[in-house]
Specification:
The protein folds into two domains: 70 residues, lambda repressor-like DNA-binding domains (434 Repressor (Amino-terminal Domain), Orthogonal Bundle); 184 residues, Endonuclease, Chain A (2-Layer Sandwich), CATH 3.30.870. Helix content is 51%, strand content 12%. It contains twelve helices and six strands. The longest helix has 17 residues.
């Protein structure tokens, strides 16, 4: 039988197809035998394996049960659906939604959890202009921002600590009205009982322990993980030895940065257009 060769680096769909094929081959099952267990046709299995059809959440969940693979298929299916997102980010989002404490350091742009819809749309519109993503992918990213923010409204509310590089409030995004609304959102965020907002000014210079953005999550069982991105993929670090080092550096960053009251004053000045 001629089988299409799969290149898992080609796309998330190809990676899902390879996972499915290798799992099926390991059991010695034909496509039809797996189809019988899944409750579909052998043609459907073939389409999934070759990337011609995208898996649904339900299909991925059933495959995890059939193969006893934890949530491997479900995680990979999320990557297939979130083609506008860099590799690793969809997995991070699932942990973000469960975290009891979130610590963020962001450079250059306001982080998604604090963005207004208009700011998010302006940011993605620029990516479309540069042909980095398609208009449909831009819409997907903006929708995800809203979904991520909604998860923070759960009860009890997670503790959210944010340190923004000064560039986040100095870099204009969209129209003046868009930025004014974004400044208002930041000021409102600082008033919440479960948040701390600080701005690290340019004058801190070398006293910043981080250069790229970083996120540190504390999970319900008090375990820690961190997330950082390169140009093409995100990396989720679960090794406590490394994450504890980052947490110590984050505490240092908070100590060096101006207080929330001083940071709010900086944001109000930026809103007025004064240095």
């Amino acid at each position: 039988m001629n089988r299409k060769e799969l290149n898992p680096e080609e796309s998330p769909s190809a990676r899902f197809g390879q996972l499915l094929r290798t799992s099926r081959d390991a059991r010695g099952w034909t496509q039809q035998e797996l189809a019988t267990r899944l409750g579909c046709s052998g043609t459907h299995i073939s389409a999934l394996e070759t990337g011609r059809r995208s898996p649904t959440t339900r299909t991925a969940a059933i495959l995890d049960k059939i193969f006893g693979s934890g949530d491997k298929f479900e995680r990979q299916s999320r990557a297939v659906r979130h083609t506008a997102l860099i590799e690793g980010f969809p997995e991070y989002v699932t942990h973000e939604a469960r975290a009891v404490e979130l610590r963020l350091y962001e450079v250059g742009v306001v982080p998604g959890l604090l963005q207004t819809p208009e700011y998010a749309a302006a940011l993605e519109a620029d990516a479309v202009r540069r042909e980095a993503i398609t208009p449909d992918q831009a819409d997907e990213r903006v929708e995800l921002v809203a979904k991520r923010q909604a998860t923070l409204l759960r009860s009890p509310s997670p503790l959210l600590l944010v340190v923004l590089d000064e560039g986040c409030i100095r870099r204009p995004m969209g129209t003046r009205a868009v930025m004014d609304a974004q400044f208002a959102r930041l000021l409102e965020f600082a008033e919440r009982p479960n948040t701390v907002l600080q701005v690290a000014p340019f004058s801190m210079g070398a006293r910043r322990p981080f250069s790229p953005p970083i996120t540190i999550l504390t999970m319900p069982d008090r375990s820690l993980m961190s997330y950082a991105e390169s140009t093409h993929r995100g990396h989720l670090e679960r090794e406590s030895t490394f994450v504890l080092t980052m947490l110590a550096a984050y505490h240092q960053l908070q100590a060096e940065a101006p207080s929330q009251a001083e940071s709010v004053a900086m944001i109000e000045k930026a809103r007025k257009g004064t240095p």
